[in-house]
Amino acid sequence: MAWPVCRLDVAGVRRDLAWRPGEHIMMTCISAAAALSICSAMASAQWTCVRLHPANAERSFANAAVGTTQAGYATFGGVQHGGVWTGSAASWTDLSPAGATMTVVQGCTAGMQVGYAGFPTVAIHASVWSGTAASRVDLHPAGFTQSLAYSVDGPQQVGVVVAGSLSRAALWTGTAASFVNLHPAGASESRAYGVDNGVQVGSATIGGAGRAGMWSGTAASWVNLHPAGFVSSQALAIENGQQVGSVTIGGESRAALWTGTAASFVNLHPAGSAYSTAMGVGAGYQVGFASVGGAEHAVLWNSTASSFLDLHQFAPAPFVFSYATGVSSDGTNLYVSGYASNGPSLTEAIVWIRPLPGACDGVDFNHDGLFPDTQDVTDFLAVFAGGTCPTESCGDIDFNNDGLFPDTSDIDSLLSVFSGGACV
Questions:
Q1: Which H or E run includes 374?
Q2: Reported pTM
Q3: Are 260 and 214 in contact (CB under 8 A)?
């Protein structure tokens, strides 16, 4: 049985969202006229979109991000294979264990991944990995028919267990025996979607409607985040005291942000959009998707509706729809995981990358996964001079992110960082 990546209530409809030390370099001079011929599109707010789609895969989805790592799955021969990337298609690592009929990775943290796996004689089971297919640990507790894990932080994993047709929010600490049932009293169903620093978030069905909420390790600790004036709500992710998800009114969803109480609710819904959902949070930012001009576009917020940024404008040309699922930072760059699609024929995992203010870009300018590599310098100089990017995924020429380009100080900065020096 092939399960979707995540089930979200959007617009009143259940939608499936599948969620260096140096080398000597020979340089040539370029003329100012050539430098000034550079396409202004290279200055698109320093955002780079990298296609993570593994070779020979039919479809791929990036569902989460932590630091420089993205996690999700790709389909090969019609079979879902969970895996991880580190910023390039070539970095794909397949986590499907021997004998599995399907695997999906939903969440990740440093050195650990969670999701679910199926086998010929076994139903879908929640699983946790530590970087290799052989490291998989089955989290499925006795007494339930199915289980799925959605998120991980430190020693804790969260998700859902299923008994018959009813779901129960679940918490684990690395083993099936550690299972804790988070199902709140008075709820008919519940799910846990996110965890951070000992706090879990998700939703519970109370009085026939979904209610966003959070726990601190026990069913009795449930806190209802549902704001007044809305029909239903769900919390999908948490980090550093912020919780994100969606609320529903008039049959349409609205991206939502909380900071621990129902009263703290912030409506992130962009002006002019028919519906929106926030799916990930990290580094002070929130990400998800919104309807823009009739199509679903990946978006990023900085805690207010007016801070809305349409990330789809930085996606490659073939794609019509895009979704952002996670956001993280390594202290130098901001990484947004997600996927883009042009319909049923093409869906690819992607990651949007933007330098943080005051930091140089990474030395893998052409995003081929190879660095340090003199080809990055060659490609940078070619693009700087007005040429094209051979990989179609090159960064922008403002390497030191000082807002000035074309500018030879960007070349100085590139060479300094390439040889192991500082950003200058």
A1: helix 374-384
A2: 0.79
A3: yes
